[in-house]
Amino acid sequence: MKIFTMVEVGETVSRKKIVQTFGEDYLSYDQNRLDTMVRRLRQKIESHLGIKLPLNTVRVRGFSFDDVLIIDP
Questions:
Q1: CB distance 57 to 38 below 8 Å
Q2: pLDDT tens digits for 4-47?
Q3: Global pTM?
Q4: Widest CA span in the chain
Q5: 71 lies in some domain
Q6: How far is CA 41 from CA 28, 47, 49, in A?
Q7: How far apart are CA 7 and CA 67, in angstroms?
Q8: Is 73 part of a structural domain of the chain?
Q9: How many domains does the structure of the chain reveal?
Q10: Of 1, 9, 37, 64, which is most buried, counting CB atoms within 10 Å of its CB?
Q11: What confidence tier does 73 reach under pLDDT thresholds 50, 70, 90?
Q12: Which residues form the domain of 44?
């Protein structure tokens, strides 16, 4: 989530950049793994907080966060 604090609201963060932030090699990383993590994150937020996470899939390109994101230390 921290990676989305470094871009403008609604700006797409590429799958490659996300995978590299995890410290993984993009070419050998299973893309389904990333999609599964995002799906589970969305489900957890919705079930625990009762709100829809404004994390959107941008087909082929990556993901965008369509709201201001503030992370408390």
A1: yes
A2: 877 888 899 999 999 999 999 999 999 899 999 999 999 999 99
A3: 0.78
A4: 36
A5: no
A6: 23, 10, 12
A7: 11
A8: no
A9: 1
A10: 64
A11: low
A12: 2-65
d(CA 69, CA 22): 19
Tell me, what amino acid is at 69?
L
β-bridge partners, 63? 13, 57
Rounded to whole angstroms, what are the CA distances from 55 to 21, 36, 37?
Answer: 17, 13, 12
Q: What is the pLDDT of residue 7?
A: 82
70 within a domain of the structure (yes/no) = no
Q: Residue 50 carries which side chain, given as an amino acid letter?
A: G
Does 72 map to a domain? no
Residue in the structure block whose two tokens are 């829809």: 52
CB 35 within 8 A of CB 28: no
Among 8, 9, 30, smallest CA distance to 19 is for 30
Under 8 Å between Cβ of 6 and 14: no
Contact 50, 6 (CB under 8 A): no
